Amino acid sequence: xxxxxxxxRRGQLFPWEQRGLPRTESATLGSEGLGDTxxxxxxxxxxxxxxxxxxxxxxxxxxxxxxxxxxRCAELCxxxxxxxxxxxxxxxxxxxxxxxxxxxxxxxxxxxxxxxxDMDQEGIAEMTLDENAIxxxxxxxxxxxxxxxxxxxxxxxxxRPVTQSGRPITGFVRPSTQSGRPSTMEQAIKTSRTxxxxxxxxxxxxxxxxLGTASMLTSPDGPxxxxxxxxxxxxxxxxxxxxxxxxxxxxxxxxxxxxxxxxALATEHAQFKDWWWKVQIGKCYYRLGLYxxxxxQFKSALKDQDMVDTILYLAKVYLRxxxxxxALNLFKQGLDRFPGExxxxxxxxxxxxxxxxxxxxxxxxKDVLKQDNTxxxxxxxxxxxxxxxxxxxxxxxxxxRLLQMGVYKCQLFNNLGLCCFYAQQYDMTLSSFERxxxxxxxxxxxxxxxxxxxxxxxxIGDLNLAYxxxxxxxxNNNDYAEAYNNLAVLEMRKGHIEQARxxxxxxxxxxxxxxxxxxxxxxxSEKVGDLQRSLTAAQKSEAAFxxxxxxxxxxxxxxxxx
Length: 562
Prior knowledge:
Elements: H1 39-46, H2 57-66, H3 70-81, H4 96-111, H5 124-128, H6 185-190, H7 204-214, H8 232-236, H9 239-252, H10 256-269, H11 275-287, H12 291-304, H13 308-320, H14 324-337, H15 342-354, H16 358-371, H17 376-388, H18 392-404, H19 410-422, H20 426-439, H21 443-460, H22 463-476, H23 481-494, H24 497-510, H25 516-527, H26 531-544, H27 549-561
């Protein structure tokens, strides 16, 4: 099916989270003038009916663009632009030469386009060098940095595992949930940068730069446009060219400063009445870390033109400023103007999920499914919530629905195997895990499957099989803290105290946000008489999970001894 320039934006399914359960995070420019080319003059100019499909070169290039064959479109436009100047039209309001130039610019942009609404990764530099003043002690339920302050209470880490940032593992991996907020710089650097937990990446700005350098492959002879020699004031006065040029500079070249200069000149030429340019200025400010200036631009754009995308951009600003309540109010106001809008409902559900209010998030995800019953993220999150609420039979129905929709991935069969096991449908358990192993695309996914197989083996009492499965888990992923912890428990059962202590120490250093390794190490140290280490580990366990009753009981006993 052909996707026109005004068609819906297609989302991208991200891989799901560890422990077997999934986690949970083009601009259209006007084509004025392209249809105004005089067909007879073009045929005389280019000689006949063109080549390739029997079409004129410009029309064939436009057809390739509509069918998302961007490389072929750029090649055809290059051939048009290489014609001698004699054969080109004079610089009229919108000539064929300008049409080919604009079309090639858009094609190169689409080849590296990343949706700014979903692209929201916060790196170590952004977390530790953030100069925005935010209250250190937030009121309950008003901060994403302290998810434990949620008024909803949230699920217990004993039932539902949490990520490094303290949030429960949810049903879908999104870019916004990939970045954690470690408490110290030391912890941020030590944390393994994998997709298995909420981890800090090197730098968000570095990711954009790598996108820009990779895009140079589209122009082996050098950049298509030399930005240093551009007269931005001239192009800002031509709306048909300036929008395509801005998208090229912002996405393809990743030159935010030049893009901001062009947008400022263009919005001044439009007498500050064009909402599109205000949104683009806001995007530039957001990329530069000037969140308050971005907020002003997005608010001004909303006054001129009420758009769902602008609401989503403004909500991103509030979330980066750690103001989830303001973002929630903004989404709800948007729902009053756009009733039943799926992206707004999904945004509300994500915020509630990040604030540990999982039950409210599930209700909003159900509202999403009322509007769009094929929404993969909503189905996955509701299924994950049912599984951790001890309802594997209901979760199984949701995951089967994903399978019927064509989501044929390792993570889905992994989850189906777990649901079948806990729902006592043992005939389907091993076959689901076998299919998951077959579909695994990397070593991390293979490690997840072996880890879950180890849990199944523990459940049926085959400890030797469990031992081998956990060994295979960190053969594939040497940073698998949960596998180290569970293997230490099996070593403890065999009486291998030193091996168990070494494994627990490794697990504690790999995942300081998990309470199980700390608690197990405290119990083991208390049994061998090392009360001081036991007290230290028990205090770490209490910090990771304040409501753990066994940890509190152990701390009380240790304080009596000491």
